[in-house]
Every structure is written in structure tokens, then in C-alpha cells.
Amino acid sequence: MKGLMFGGLSAMMVAIATSSIIAPASARPGITSGNPNASAPLVMAGDTSMVFNFTAPFITSSGVRGTTHFIRLAVVGMSLNDLMISIPSQMENYDNIRVIDQTGQNIPAKITSAKNQVAIVFNQPVAQGTYLEVQFTGVQMRGAGEDILFYGITAERTGIKGEIPVGTARVQLPSRG
Length: 177
Fold this sequence. Notes:
By secondary structure, this protein is mostly beta strands. It is built from one helix and 13 strands. The strands form four sheets. It has a five-stranded antiparallel β-sheet, with no helix packed on it. Strands 3-4-10-7 form a four-stranded antiparallel β-sheet, with no helix packed on it.
């Protein structure tokens, strides 16, 4: 009798614990920054258990199309005045740099480059809530070597002095051979 009672009690405790762990995602609070003026939260496809509330620009994707390397950024929180991009040491040269918005239109900017860095100063601040893509066309690489490139990115946001880190874009090169 004693074993039956403890067995039933154990089964009931497991059922209670399990039901509290697997509460529906809609019943759980989202992860937010606590900023009531922040942009709408981002819900990842297929996962309704976490909500992201971004308040600063971030890299959404990066990659390679032929000889063009691209980096996509979401402009959130405040508008952007400029971008500074560190060039990977494996990159020997490139033909051109282009910055486009989500519709494919060129974003007017003054682009200057030094050996290891590119500065993109926009003619007008890029408004928050938009996406932009930086394209390095005609990229030429130094011999055989690393198949992964890292582009460090900082930006100056309107209303904030100095550059803030945006992130590091990772570009996986197709295998050569």
C-alpha cells in the first residue's frame, strides 16, 4: 500500500512539473530590452518561445555571389550616419563598393578606402526601420588560404558621438579547386 501511495504521488509530481515546463509560448513573457519606445520585436520563424527586441543596428546576413561579397544590415534604434568596415587580410583587391537599400536602389554615400578599412559616409542619414546591403564587387583573394573571411563593422548613429560596434560579418568562401 505504501509503495502504491508513493508511486502515485511521484507520478502526480512529474505531471505537475512537466505541465509547468511546457507552458505554451504565448503564456511566457517575451525577451525585451524594457524600452517602451523600441521597435517591434522580431519573432524567429518556427520558434515562438523567444521574442527579440533590437535597439541597435545589426548584421542580418553575409555571403558571396560570384566575385561579390555582401553584408546586409538592419537599421534599428536610430538612423545611421556612417559605417566603418575592416577589410579581411586575405582580400587582395576589389573593383567597387556599392550600398543599396531593401528595394535595390543605391544609397548615396561618400566611400573612401585605406589598406585595411573602408569608410562609408551617407549623404543623408539612413532611416531606422530600413535594411541596407554593402556589396564588394570584383573581389580578388590572395592565393590559397583561409576559406572564411571576417569583416568587422562599426557605425555612427545619429545622436550618439563616436563609433559603436555593430558586429562581425562572417563570409564563407566557396571551396576553390
